[in-house]
Amino acid sequence: MPALTAFALNGVAVWRWDADNGVRRPILNEIDWHARTGEVWALLGPNGAGKTTLLTVLGAVEFPSSGTVDILGERLGRTDVFRLREQIGFVDSRLGRRFAPELTVAEVVRTGATGTIGLFDERLTAEDRERATAQLATMEIEHLAERRFAVCSHGERTRTLIARALLARPRLLLLDEPGSGLDLGGRETLLGALGRVVVDEPSLTVVLTTHHLEELPPVTTHALLLRDGRIGAAGPADATLTGAALSACFGLDVRVARSAGRWHATATPAATRADLR
Ligand SMILES: Nc1ncnc2c1ncn2[C@@H]1O[C@H](COP(=O)(O)OP(=O)(O)O)[C@@H](O)[C@H]1O
Ligand SMILES: [Mg+2]
User: Fold this and answer.
1) Residue 270's pLDDT is what?
2) What is the pLDDT of residue 2?
3) What number of other Cβ atoms are within 10 A of residue 128's Cβ?
4) 11, 93, 98, 267: which sits with the fewest CB atoms below 10 Å from its CB?
């Protein structure tokens, strides 16, 4: 069976008003990016590179200023974005703040079945409930099921929100910096959980942003490096995550190693090297 296109961006630019300088400036420029169904993409770049903006275009939240965006067979601007968004799971740290403080972890996960922030348990089918329980296990949060979501740690909340997103059976899962702010244990648990999701749902396409190579799950198949709103490199992960490409992306002398499926980076800041001479 031919691999299906999950999304295709052609010549995408996003311009924004820069209030500090009183001008419109491009946040993203000349973005050509194609992904096939089932691929797991890492979107890497320094702070301010445009990762979140690009993710919001993929989530059908933002429209490009120019270029074309096709997501799951629909062209942005010619389709009902509300219906399209139902097929896209979008998880970022802001989402977690929208739930009522009394909801438990299990309840937050169940809101995914209705795609709502409030809980409408009466609308859930028996299958929805079973799948919610299964997602708790996949994300290793079963032991937290009855704990209030609001008091959970950052890592526990992130895994809860991913479980919630998966309950809606998305075809595209977008995770904005899922690993940021996690301690070592939290990060490793998250990476293990993401690995299980990819194995369980082979036709799910995943894009996650990060600025740390150590936060990439071993199941990452592809990578896109973004710098100043432009693509520096994109393609299969091992061919893209090279020292040369990452050095150009981050403006540092980066060395990359891969062991046990994981990537590691070490960097020497250019200024430090100059000082040493
Ligand atoms: N709504 C906006 N209006 C103006 N500038 C924005 C807006 N959103 C983001 N930016 C700017 O666009 C650039 C890219 O931001 P962002 O996509 O959040 O980068 P990243 O996620 O890689 O850190 C930054 O310089 C940011 O200040
Ligand atoms: Mg960001």
Assistant:
1) 60
2) 44
3) 17
4) 98
Q: What is the dihedral of CA 137, 140, 144, 146, to 10 degrees?
A: -20
Of 25-39, 158-172, 262-276, the range with the lowest mean pLDDT is 262-276
How far apart CA 160 and CA 163 sit, in angstroms, is 5
What mean pLDDT value characterizes the chain?
Answer: 93
**What separation in Å is there between the alpha carbon of 147 and the centre of ligand 1?**
35
Q: C-alpha dihedral over 17, 18, 24, 28, to 10 degrees?
A: -90
pLDDT of 273: 54
Ligand with minimal distance to 61 CA? 1
Write out the residues surrounding ion ligand 2, Cβ under 5 A.
51-52
CATH number for the domain whose boundaries are 88-169: 3.40.50.300
pTM exceeding the 0.85 threshold for the entire prediction: yes
Task: Quote the ligand 2 centre to 50 CA distance (angstroms).
Answer: 7
φ, ψ for residue 163, nearest 5 deg: -60, -40
Residue to substitute in 25, 27, 44, 56 for testing ligand 1 pocket (most ligand atoms within 8 angstroms of CB): 27
Closest atom of ligand 1 to CA, residue 55: 17
Q: Where are the domains of the chain?
A: 88-169
Length of the chain, please?
A: 277
